[in-house]
Design a protein that fits this description.
By secondary structure, the chain is α+β, with helices and mostly antiparallel strands. Helix content is about 25%, strand content about 30%. The protein folds into two domains: about 190 residues, Bira Bifunctional Protein, Domain 2 (BirA Bifunctional Protein, domain 2, 2-Layer Sandwich); about 40 residues, SH3 type barrels (Roll). The strands form two sheets. The chain has a seven-stranded mixed β-sheet with strand order 1-2-3-7-6-5-4, with helices on both faces. Strands 11-10-9-8-12 form a five-stranded antiparallel β-sheet, with no helix packed on it.
Length: about 270
């Protein structure tokens, strides 16, 4: 006689208990959107406070440089809408807050702190593969920013096929594939919103220094050779640090250089 066994998914760690939703932050749960960033921008004029927008599916998701972002159901697609008061250069530093919050949420859900690292400028890695990406979009208001959309995509259950990844880029991975844990998007949103609120409070009260220190503590390939590709050239060198503006400091054969924006390859 045979046995018909149904395996249960692994239990989440005790630290994965749903945290309290941040006070004063709105929450919009949508079945399907073109993109959560686009929807956040549409909501901005009528939404005076911070708000999270989650979509179970995106039909026109995008990553950096307007590349398509594969957005199947079961993965995480969400945007935090903010109305920041700082100058634009300082507003952009929230990408580091978002990356740190992503890592904190993932660690809380998995209890695997050593598995998650941060890749400059705005990716989260799991076991060395790309798990999540962050995209900031904003509109200007004089010398400042009218609103900021912090878009986040996480491969909770599925990752793009390696054939669609640019040559030299990191292999995409999923949380389910690497850990065996299945986390639903709304559960993940609760952890991410809580974690981001802590880093936002730190940033507004203490500035970038605490975020910089925490980010460097979890940085991938720090002190190791990398290449940084800008719009005009590719630089090779040792990843030395990030500076007070968030720029990558690369030690090259010609000395240290600061790179404010680039794509990094290992």
């Amino acid at each position: 006689m045979g046995w018909n066994l149904r395996l249960s998914p692994p239990l989440l760690p005790l630290s994965a208990k749903a945290p309290v939703w941040p006070a004063g932050v709105a929450r919009h749960i949508c079945d399907s959107l073109d993109s959560t960033n686009a929807h956040a921008i549409r909501l901005a004029p009528s939404t005076p406070g911070p708000a999270w927008i989650l979509a179970y599916e995106q039909t026109a998701g995008k990553g950096r440089r307007a590349r398509p972002w594969v957005s199947p159901r079961g993965n995480f697609h969400a945007t935090l809408l903010l109305h920041p008061k700082e100058p634009a250069a300082q507003v952009a530093l929230r990408s580091f807050a978002a990356a740190l919050a992503l890592r904190d949420a993932l660690v809380a859900l998995t209890d695997l702190p050593e598995a998650f690292t941060l890749k400059w400028p705005n990716d989260v890695l799991l076991n060395g593969g790309k798990l999540a990406g962050i995209l900031l979009e904003s509109s200007s208001s004089g010398a400042g920013v009218a609103h900021l959309a912090i878009g986040t995509g996480v491969n909770l259950i599925a990752a793009p096929d390696a054939s669609v990844v640019e040559e030299g880029a990191l292999q995409p991975v999923s949380l389910l594939g690497e850990t065996g844990l299945r986390v639903d998007p709304e559960t993940f949103l609760g952890h991410l919103a809580f974690a981001y609120a802590q880093w936002e409070n730190s940033f507004t009260a203490l500035g970038f220094a605490p975020l910089r220190a925490a980010w460097l503590a979890h940085a991938a390939r720090l002190g190791q050779p990398i290449r940084a590709r800008t719009a005009s050239t590719t630089h090779h060198g040792l990843f030395q640090t990030i500076d007070a503006t968030g720029a990558l400091i690369l030690e090259t054969d010609h000395g240290a250089i600061a790179i404010p924006a680039a794509e990094v390859f290992f």
